[in-house]
Design a protein that fits this description.
The protein is about 45% helix and about 20% strand. By secondary structure, it is an alpha/beta fold. Helix 2 runs parallel beside helix 3.
């Protein structure tokens, strides 16, 4: 069975990690169980170290819910990334998820959020000084 056949049979992977400039862009495509969340945290920190990343953008727009474990794991990931010299921005929190998080008193303390990828990359540029991503306009000239 080819890789494409396997993907069709079991579906696409629940997470994709892309590297753009000094940043890792993570898209979570489906709900993750606790084991998958822990694996994501480990994988991201390893990617960050290998690529000498300065920032991580995590897109949670496809998720219907962020439970207490997911919220805590994202917070811990951001803290660990900061210890490695990188900033983390979470994007795509839907209005419904935001309201539910507030109602449940779930907090992502010291985790920056943005509406979308473009805003997150601009925020990371300002925080890290890593410069604009390729193809992005710079205000320097």
């Amino acid at each position: 069975m080819s890789a494409t056949d396997r993907e069709t049979a079991i579906g696409p992977p629940p997470v994709s990690i892309l590297s753009q400039s000094a940043y890792l862009i993570v898209s979570i495509h489906a709900a993750l169980d606790d084991t998958q969340l822990m694996r994501l945290q480990e994988d991201l920190l390893e990617h960050l170290e290998r690529r000498r990343g300065r920032g991580i953008v995590i897109d949670v727009g496809a998720l219907d819910v962020l439970d207490s474990f997911a919220t805590r794991t994202l917070t811990q990931l951001a803290r660990a990334a900061r210890l490695k010299g990188a900033e983390t921005v979470v994007v795509g929190i839907s209005p419904e998820v935001a309201v539910a998080m507030v109602q449940l008193s779930l907090r992502m303390e010291n985790v920056r959020t943005a509406l979308d990828l473009e805003e997150a990359l601009e925020l990371l540029e300002g925080l890290t000084g890593a410069g604009p991503a390729p193809g992005r306009r710079s205000d320097l000239g």
